[in-house]
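Hi all, long-time lurker, first post. I run a small reading group and we've been trying to get comfortable going from sequence to structure in the token notation. Rather than ask abstract questions, I figured I'd post a concrete chain and ask someone more experienced to write out its structure so we can walk through it together at our next meeting. Sequence below, copied exactly:
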Amino acid sequence: MKSDILFISLQDEDDFKDEIRQKQNEFLDLYSLYLATSLPWIKEELLNKAYQLHLLDPNFTFHV
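-- Answer (accepted) --
Happy to help. Here is the structure in token form:
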């Protein structure tokens, strides 16, 4: 069963920056895949990753 709960354990500011960078890279990978395929399930994953990024950085927004 897929869960919509995101758990992140950060020890310091560097961990936080690394976590954001990792989520950004994952987001960009999904976005390029979505642009190439337009598959609905990729769009769902993309929106989920955008939400995760928004939780880490409230200034992050994304609109399809």
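A couple of things your group might point at:
The helical segments are 13-37, 40-56.
The chain has a mean pLDDT of 88.
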